[in-house]
Amino acid sequence: MLIFAKRRQDLSYDDFVAGYESSHVGLVDALTRSGLHKEMRAYCRNYLRHGHALSAPGRHVDFDLVVEAEFACAEDFALTMRNIAGDDEALDRVNADFDRLLDRSSLRYVVVDERDGGPLAASR
Q: Cα separations (Å) of 54 from 16, 45, 49?
């Protein structure tokens, strides 16, 4: 699962990254420990560096964050979402954190079929 999101317009890049890492990552960890998010195998955050010299010039990507959330299958992701939606306290915490950090209208979820290979795969 890839999740794409934009930060709130009033947050700088540094404030967004610091806020997400200090708040939302801890929330995901707490939900995982509680059993509501136990199906997730891995959680990697990628913060886009707009304007970096190695980024494609003139081709702005309209997101600030790409999350890689690994589940065994799409059904495990759906189960996690149902678990959180069924727990009012957890849902309130997630929604409050999203509202504090993200432009909620920007959220996009994409199911992907990840493949590993190539010359670097053996070194992992």
A: 22, 19, 9
